[in-house]
Amino acid sequence: MRVTEGGVGQLAVVRPPSGGFPRHSHDEYVISVNFCGLERVRLDRVSFDVSVDEFTLYNPGQVQSCTTQVPPDTSFAAVSWYVPPAVVESLTGDAPVDFERPVVRSPHLRREFLAAARDFRELTSDGLPAPAESAGLVQERLVLVLSRLLDLAAGRRARAPEPADTRIAAVLDRLRTDLSGTPRLAELAAEVGMSREHLIRTFSRATGTPPYAWHLSARLAEARRRLRKGEPVADVAHMLGFADQAHFHRHFAAAYAITPGRYRRLSQINI
């Protein structure tokens, strides 16, 4: 994974060793295009296929996973753009929006995006700040791509619906506020008066993913935030309740196609 960061967020060339990603989520909007092959995506509770001429558009907090099919002797790769919500809201007059369509087909816009992403990476390939004028021009091109995608696929964000079962809302609050380790499902279920099996089934229906997987995704997203701030890998692993650095390393690399240490180093270089 190669990461470049600037005023419009992070751009990364993603090459997951396994050819896909397990369930995970991001704090940012994620805009991606693939270089080759077919991607089978599961987003929240729906599944769909993505070809090379299409963008995938994920909203902050959406739970995503994928498998891929590529020609023989070819590995899956994609360019992903992690866009902070503030950048999106700056284009909409501070109005929160969601991408209502997770897939947009636009070969022309794809070419524009890849060209701008390539130029953006090349400007900072030596780890030094790019000239302000050059960086500004490339960022402007990326913002124009984002603006067009918003026109094509976004709608005003409705108030987030609460899970049908208020007990699941209580479990979600508990999980969000304690990222220090793996939750004990029996305790969570007992706190809201449910059996363990009923909790798993109801939670999965409400969120699209089981409690353990949801909580692991939230812990990894928090790890990503902490690493970007420069916190040591060992400290992050300990504070978020991973058994050891190897355990943390394995889950982080599976979710983001980069090791925690490398992600931390690249984030610091690009500040």
Supply Rg: 19 Å
Query: Biggest sheet, in brief?
Result: 6 strands, antiparallel
Task: Give the helix tally.
Answer: 10
Helix residue percentage? 40-55%
Q: Distance between termini?
A: 17 Å
Beta-strand portion reads: 15-25%
The strands making up the biggest β-sheet line up spatially as: 1-2-9-4-7-11
Low-confidence stretches: 126-133, 158-163
Mean pLDDT, to the nearest integer, reads 83
Give me the secondary-structure category. Answer: alpha+beta
Looking at the structure, what is the overall shape?
A: globular
Number of strands: 12
Question: What's the order of the H and E elements?
Answer: EEEEEEEEEHEEHHEHHHHHHH
What does this structure look like?
With 271 residues, the protein is of the alpha+beta class. The chain is built from ten helices and twelve strands. The strands form three sheets. A six-stranded antiparallel β-sheet has the order 1-2-9-4-7-11, sandwiched between helices. It has a four-stranded antiparallel β-sheet with strand order 3-8-5-6. It is globular and about 55 Å long.
List the helices and strands and how they pair.
Blueprint: E1 2-6, E2 9-14, E3 21-24, E4 29-34, E5 38-43, E6 46-50, E7 54-58, E8 64-69, E9 78-83, H1 85-91, E10 97-99, E11 103-105, H2 107-123, H3 132-153, E12 154-156, H4 166-177, H5 185-191, H6 196-207, H7 211-228, H8 233-239, H9 245-256, H10 260-269
Helix pairs in contact: 2-3, 5-6, 7-10
